Each structure stands twice: as structure tokens, then as C-alpha cells.
Amino acid sequence: MNRxxxxxxxxxxxxxxxxxAVGTKQHHARSLAEVLVEGDHxxxxxxGLNRMDMYVKDIQTGICAKDGEPxxxxxxxxxxxxxxxxxxxxxxxxxxxxxxxxxxxxxxxxWVVAHNSNHxxxxxxxxxxxxxxxxxxxxxxxxxxxVVPTRAKxxxxxxxxxxVAAPAKDGDSFVLDMATSAxxxxxxxxxxxxxDPIPExxxxxxxxxxxxxxxxxxxxxxxxxxxxxxxTGGYKGYGLGMMVEVFCGILAGAQYSKYIRxxxxxxxxxxxxxxxxAINPENFAPGFSDRMSDLLSIHRNLNPADxxxxxxxxxxxxxMNMKKCEDMGGIPYHINVVKYMNECAKKIGVNPxxxxxxxxxG
Length: 362
Description:
By secondary structure, the protein is an alpha+beta fold.
């Protein structure tokens, strides 16, 4: 499989040019470019450059606002309710996470929720911002309904991700960033395009029965929660997905559950709910980062069941992907994604396009 090797700087510049070409403010375009490229850098290609055309379309159609800034509607020393003003998700996310960190610096914890937001990229991007201040960070968002609850037949919950980042010594960290569905919808779409069956426990058919046919999942069925079927603990993933909805849609007074617009149908504003938390360990027992490093070491040093696959902690696969990018001198993008995004850019008069002169296999 041929891939184009492109530097982070080039991809960020390209995304910024595309977004400003349709009227996005420069600093808003930069916020989006940074979160999308961080997604790719960490190996989450489904949430990076691959999604840029969706954001361009949202601004072009006016379904997502390009003017204004988020506004604090209500706050206490440790909490805030923010109106995202229907701006790009990363603009809202950065505003809220910065506010949560400021509050945690002042009083030990900051809990900020937003309504009127949009798709914000990888949840981990916001949780990890707290690591720079040696704090624990958490981030959650609701999404369009794509998940069928345990025992049900219709989609009423989003993939509703959870991210928790905790600092350890010497720049090390625990970074959990997971959907509460068994997989992302993009993985099912990929299997369908290839004509491959999906593993059992990813999705169900329109009757709510677990299926390995991606077409059945995408046409009237849905994803299943983490854990798969009821017999294998899917109800726990269902509970976690609903917990995210409590923190996001319900607490923030945003859209929630089946009231959120259908995925990829932009006939009305998204009004997503999002939640951002920062916790200062200094307000608790001393020695947090030492214990955190020990906890990570205990697990990384376990004897693996298979010698070829060492035991990892949350965030390690992403770190390995980032190191691979550093060693290669750029991010390896699938050549089709680069071509498609360059076509999108040409339509809006953007120049220069993404370079594709460095071809690597992999």
C-alpha cells in the first residue's frame, strides 16, 4: 500500500489554507489544523486529515459558525457552563479546557461543560493539555446516534468517547482515549469498502442481532457498545456511553441521544454537548507522579502471554506511532486520502496543495 510522507508543518499549513479559503478565522483554522494533525500523528487516521472536508463543508454551508468566540454563561470557582456559539469544535474545546485548567490552578479542580459545540476531533487532545501543567485531564463528548443499546434495535447513543490523561515522571503519562462503542463507524465502513466481514461484536443488524456483515450494520443496524453482546458485557459499555451523555448533553443542556442530528446529515446545527475536567494532584496525596510511574512500570513489565506482543499501557501505541513518524520524518498518509483532499482544495482555489513526492510503502 503506497503512502505519501508529509511533514506535520505542511499538513497543518494545508488545512489552515483550506479553512481560511472558506472564511474561517486564522486562529480558528489553526486550532482545527493542530487537533487534526495530532490525531494523525498519534495514528488515529479516522479523526485527522481524513475528516477535513467535513469541516470545510460545515463552514461553507453555514451550518457551523465562523465568527465569534465561545462565551461563559455561568460559573463558580470550580465550574463553568459555556455557550460554544456553534463554532468549530476545537475552538470550543480549547476555550473550555484552558478555563478548566485555570480553575484547577486556582482551586484544585475545574469542571467545564459546553453546549452549542461541534465535532472536536480526538478527545485525548484536550485531556492531554492538562499534562503540560502536571494535572489530570478528562474530556468527553456526545455524538450523532450510531450505537444500539443492549437489548434494543435502534441507535440512540453516540460513540461517546472518554479520555483521561494522568502525568507520570519525566514526561511519561497514562492517556486513555476510547469510544464507548466497540469500534468507530469508520472501521465498519472500511470493511464494507473492501468487501470483508467484520469481527463478531462490532455491530448489529436492523433486528438488533450481532452480525459480521458490515452492510447490515450500515443500513439500518448500528454499532454495539464496548463489550459487544449482553453475554460478553456489552451492557457495561452501554452504561458508559450513557454516563458520557449525562456529563455532556444532559449537564450542558445540549442536544442528546436520539435528538442529535444523524451522522453526516447536516440539515441543522449539531449543538453537541462536551465536558472538560482538570484536577490538580497537588491538592491530594503527595507523590502522585512517582506512584503513577510505578503503576505504569508494573504493567509494562508484566510477562507477556505472547513474547512478540509486550504488555502496554494506555497511550503507548500512540507513542510508538509518534516515534515512527519522527524516525520517518513525517506522517505517512494513504495516497488516496491525499489525492481526495487535494481535489477538495482545488475546488475552493487553494494553493499550494499537499505534496506527494515522497512515496513510502506500508
